[in-house]
Amino acid sequence: MEPLHPSDREALKRAHPGLTDAEIDRTEELIAEIDELGQVGRFEEADELRDRLSEYVRLHIPRYQEVMREVAVSRGDEVRRKRPKPRVFQKDPKRGR
User: Fold this and answer.
1) Among 4, 17, 11, which residue's Cα sits nearest to residue 83?
2) pTM of structure
3) Residue 12 and residue 19 in contact, taking contact as beta carbons nearer than 8 Å
4) Which region holds residue 46: left if phi is over 0, alpha if psi is between -120 and 50, else beta?
5) What is the distance between the alpha carbons of residues 62 and 3, in angstroms, rounded to a whole number?
6) How does pLDDT run across 60-97, given as a tens digit for each residue?
7) H helices then E strands: how many in the chain?
8) Which pLDDT value is given to residue 64?
9) Which tens digit of pLDDT belongs to each residue from 48-66?
């Protein structure tokens, strides 16, 4: 996973006054861990971590998805294809999560 672009971080901070780089970094770390667990087939652990990430985002960056979508749209569809919506906020319908 690529780190967030500095302008993405700034957009998150504008939408969430008081948000720190450490909180954004923690979100990125959790996303990367979930991706790694999924790649090696540790799906139950990935699901548990996904739940922790969802709670963390709900508490610290509740407009994360909205802001990232707005940033992608403002840059155009080409950028959106390069940085797809993170899978971590989607539940696996096969697993009931």
Assistant:
1) 4
2) 0.71
3) yes
4) alpha
5) 19
6) 999 999 999 998 888 874 544 555 555 555 555 566 65
7) 5, 0
8) 94
9) 999 999 999 999 999 999 9
Burial of 53 (0-12, 13-18, 19+ CB in 10 A): buried
User: Which candidate, 57, 74, 75, places its Cα nearest to that of 65?
Assistant: 57
What single letter denotes the amino acid at residue 2? E
Where helices occur in 1-63 by DSSP H, the ranges are 6-15, 21-39, 43-60
Rounded to a whole number of angstroms, the distance between the first and last alpha carbons of the chain is: 23
Pairwise CA distance, residues 20 & 10, whole Å = 10
Residue 80 tokens read as 């959106």
